[in-house]
């Protein structure tokens, strides 16, 4: 038993001391993996257990102003990281086919190491994405995909900065920061309110964009399996494996969110309108609050103070033929039927949320 413990300790020291990138010694959180690990575990517990329990009997917070500021800050931060990672190598002298790590004190190498370190910290700021969901009581958005994606990234990037603060795998950061620029612009416009929703019709394509990034990343990483390059192959499998995992997780989300929902919406010639007070079937509207051949107790299609015992050919019968002047009946405008039908059919998901 003692021998096993000594072997584990020696292996740990060899890995985290002898194999490290000495340039990052003393940088915040770089000396040991445990602070990062515990922060990742704490994040998962907070957003899946503590947060939802705290918000269970509380109303959701109104965070629109804070969300606009946060997403704008993330756009700026991601833009700066994209520029730094690019100018440190990928826009200048890096090879897309094979790029070993430059462990020297060359200014461009040190610049890439610092950019990688700041990219590591950006994975912590992204925890706020989930925390805002919790405070909004949008627990349905805190999916397995979301928690895995955010929860494991700081730990993954930590290893990259600790051992290879530069070189081939920083291509991941270059592509990812560019995607985050576009993503946080979308989130910022969405947080600014309904009048800006017309500028974010490309939500579906944002998911496509995110999937494309993972194809680029694992294709770039796995090419080292077929060429000689003085770059640790363990990181080829580490980065490439992450990209493959995220690609399939995002693919599953895409199928559920867009392909299956589209099939349900248009299937069998019937348009289903979830959460609406009725459904549109073959051109006829059946109302939950007043059916065409049913009875409504005091309410028929949004009208009160009168019992509607039927609705046929545009006439309401309430103790006789009801006209616009009937007692207790609020007259219906001529456009209300067609307008309400168009609103139900054309209503977007984002509008219904508002």
UniProtKB/TrEMBL annotation:
Compositionally skewed regions (Polar residues) per UniProt: 320-331
InterPro entries (alphabetical): ELO_fam
GO MF terms, alphabetically ordered: fatty acid elongase activity
Domain of life: Eukaryota
Localization: Membrane
Region called Disordered, residue ranges: 310-331
One annotated GO biological process: fatty acid elongation, monounsaturated fatty acid
Reactions accelerated catalytically: a very-long-chain acyl-CoA + malonyl-CoA + H(+) = a very-long-chain 3-oxoacyl-CoA + CO2 + CoA
Transmembrane segments: 34-51, 63-83, 117-135, 147-165, 171-193, 205-223, 235-255
The entry's keywords: Fatty acid biosynthesis, Fatty acid metabolism, Lipid biosynthesis, Lipid metabolism, Membrane, Transferase, Transmembrane, Transmembrane helix
GO CC term, one of those recorded: endoplasmic reticulum membrane
Alphabetical list of Pfam families matching this protein: ELO (PF01151)
Enzyme Commission identifier(s): 2.3.1.199
Membrane topology according to the record: Multi-pass membrane protein
Family, similarity comment: Belongs to the ELO family.
Protein name: Elongation of very long chain fatty acids protein
Source species: Eriocheir sinensis
Lineage: Eukaryota, Metazoa, Ecdysozoa, Arthropoda, Crustacea
């Amino acid at each position: 038993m003692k021998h096993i413990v000594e072997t584990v300790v020696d292996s740990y020291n060899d890995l985290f001391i002898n194999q490290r990138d000495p340039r990052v010694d003393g940088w915040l959180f770089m000396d040991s993996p445990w602070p990062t690990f515990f922060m990742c575990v704490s994040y998962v517990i907070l957003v899946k257990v503590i947060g939802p329990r705290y918000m269970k009997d509380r109303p959701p917070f109104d965070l629109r102003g804070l969300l606009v500021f946060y997403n704008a800050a993330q756009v700026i931060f991601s833009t700066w990281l994209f520029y730094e990672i690019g100018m440190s190598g990928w826009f200048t002298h890096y090879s897309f086919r094979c790029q070993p790590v430059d462990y020297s004190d060359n200014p461009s190498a040190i610049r890439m190491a610092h950019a990688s370190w700041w990219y590591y910290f950006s994975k912590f700021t992204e925890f706020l994405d989930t925390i805002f969901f919790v405070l909004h009581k949008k627990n349905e958005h805190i999916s397995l995909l979301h928690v895995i994606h955010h929860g494991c990234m700081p730990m993954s990037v930590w290893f990259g900065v600790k051992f290879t603060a530069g070189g081939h795998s920083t291509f991941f950061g270059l592509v990812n920061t560019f995607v985050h620029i576009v993503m946080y612009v979308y989130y910022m416009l969405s947080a600014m309110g309904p009048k800006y929703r017309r500028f974010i019709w490309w939500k579906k394509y944002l998911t496509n964009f995110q999937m494309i990034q993972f194809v680029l990343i694992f294709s770039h990483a796995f090419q080292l399996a077929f060429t000689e390059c003085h770059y640790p192959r363990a990181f080829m499998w580490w980065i490439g494996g992450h990209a493959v995992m995220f690609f399939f997780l995002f693919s599953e989300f895409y199928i559920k969110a867009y392909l299956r929902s589209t099939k349900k919406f248009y299937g069998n010639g019937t348009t289903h309108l979830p959460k609406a007070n009725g459904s549109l079937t073959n051109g006829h509207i059946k109302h939950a609050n007043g059916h065409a051949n049913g009875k409504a107790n005091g309410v028929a299609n949004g009208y009160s103070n009168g019992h509607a015992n039927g609705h046929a050919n545009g006439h309401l019968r309430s103790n006789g033929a009801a006209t616009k002047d009937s007692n207790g009946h609020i007259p219906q405008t001529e456009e209300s039927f067609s307008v309400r039908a168009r609103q139900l059919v054309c209503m977007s998901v984002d509008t219904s949320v508002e």
